[in-house]
Amino acid sequence: MELSTILIIIAAALAAFALGYLLRKSLAEAKIVSAENEARKILEEAEKDAEAKKREAILESKEEVLKLRNEVEKENRERRNELQRQERRLVQKEENLDRKTDAIEKKEETLVKKESEIDAVKAQLVEVYSRQLSELERISGLTSEDAKQILLDGVEKEIQHEVAIKIKDMENKAKEEGEKRARDIISLAIQRCAADHVAEVTVAVIQLPSDEMKGRIIGREGRNIRAFETLTGIDLIIDDTPEAVILSGFDPIRREVARIALEKLIVDGRIHPARIEEMVEKAQKEVANQIREAGEQATFDTGVHGIHPELIVLLGRLKFRTSYGQNVLKHSVEVAHLAGLMASELGVDIQLAKRAGLLHDIGKSVDHEVEGPHVTIGVDLAKKYRESQEVIHAIAAHHGDEEPNSIVAVLVQAADAVSAARPGARRETLESYIKRLTKLEEIANSFEGVEKSYAIQAGREIRIMVKPDKIDDIGAIRLVRDIAKKIENELDYPGQIKVVSIRETRVVEYAK
To answer: 344 near 350, Cβ under 8 Å?
Structure first.
């Protein structure tokens, strides 16, 4: 019972399994068939779509080709039209050129005819001119060259006379305007500049408390005075002058060191070689400080900054330098102020003018130690310490060694002359004064036609008497100009020199 049941169950299970397998197989085959049909439909639709797209692409390509062909044909038509227009213009130009060529040929023929006619007339005129010239030469007794020379001489005299008159008028007008303007500027500058211009003389006499001090200064067998002179480089002169000794030397700075050292020794009272050496060293330091302070004060007073420290020291050395009795440092400060004031009136760079005026005599600070004129030394120092080209040129031109080519150089030259020419600013020895006056008269007398010359107004004016039979009025104008130029080239002088020519004609007759 149980076995049969089991077999039935197994048989049922196998039948169910077989039935399920058959069902699944049939279902699978149906799905496969359905899928194949679906795939076939998709392929057919894809082929239809591809064919449609292909036809669309072919149509679009044909339309694009047609469009391009139309554009190309349009462009070709435009080019052909442009070429036709150019051809028509060329044809018109050729026709115009042909017409112009024909006209030119006709004009050339006319010109050739006229030229031949002109040549014939010219030949006739030359023949007539030759006959007239020969007749004029026969009548006047002069050749054409002689007559031409006479006419040229007459014209030249007239031109010279007119030119001289014009020059005189222009010079007078320029002098009036220039002198008026210059007087205004210089007077304003002098009025506004309050620099001290009184001559300052370096003290060389040392007062002693008693004559007994002279012996202590000399020392045993002269050892003190020898040590003092060796250390300072200054001669100490002890003579019969009561309670005073004299310091003598060309170097003003050494003389100042010697003065300070000797005064300290006199106050101290202990005078021996070791003490002298100590005091001289202290005096040198004191003078060096004074020099530096004087240079700094000068730059502060003038408002000129940025100067090299070594130049400031050299500027301070000018405190102990005099020129014709005038203190050179005060003169330089005054020139800086005057140049700056005149520059402000003319609208020129004020700082540049002040700087050039302050440094214009810097060469005098070492002219006792370096060979050459102070102008050349000053130029070398300015170049060494990298001053501007304008300042260097102003230093070189302030005494006329170079022709001034800038307004600043002219202002420094004028300010230098104004400062030097002030009353009492400088003193001049009688010998050099007489030499200058004599040289003035020699220059004037060296010109032909000068009868006498007189230097007056302390050498600031020279009056010239000319021979009236050799110098006319026009020649007198040229004469004073030439004399003035020669004075400028050959003489050094402060300010300016006035040259006056006097021409006088006297006619004398006696009634008997």
So the answer is: yes
- Summarised one tens digit per residue, pLDDT across range 69-110 is 889 989 999 999 999 999 999 999 988 898 898 889 888 888
Q: What is the C-alpha to C-alpha distance for residues 152 and 146, in angstroms, rounded to an integer?
A: 10
- In sequence order, the 6+-apart residues with CB closer than 8 A to the CB of 317 are 253, 291, 295, 365, 366
pLDDT at 20: 78
Summarised one tens digit per residue, pLDDT across range 438-460 is 888 899 898 988 888 888 766 77
DSSP letter, residue 499: E
Query: What's this model's pTM, rounded to 2 decimal places?
Result: 0.48
Q: DSSP string spanning 257-293? A: HHHHHHHHHHHH---SHHHHHHHHHHHHHHHHHHHHH
Cα(359)–Cα(451) distance, integer angstroms: 45
Rg (CA), the chain: 57
- Residue 496, class by beta-carbon neighbours within 10 Å (0-12 exposed, 13-18 middle, 19+ buried)? middle
As a whole number, mean pLDDT of residues 324-343 equals: 85
Query: CA 249 → CA 265, 271, 324, 325, distances in Å?
Result: 19, 22, 17, 16
With cut-offs at 50, 70 and 90, classify the pLDDT of residue 200: very low
Q: Which residue reads 């307004």 in tokens?
A: 407
Long-range contact list for 210-216, CB < 8 A, 24+ apart?
A: 210/243, 211/242, 211/243, 213/266, 214/238, 214/245, 216/269, 216/271
Mean pLDDT, residues 116-123? 88
Residues 6+ apart with CB under 8 A from 400: 413, 488, 492
CA distance 270 to 275: 7
Three-state DSSP state, 456: strand
Of 212, 355, 198, residue with least CA distance to 271: 212
Pairing type for strands 498-503 and 461-466 reads parallel
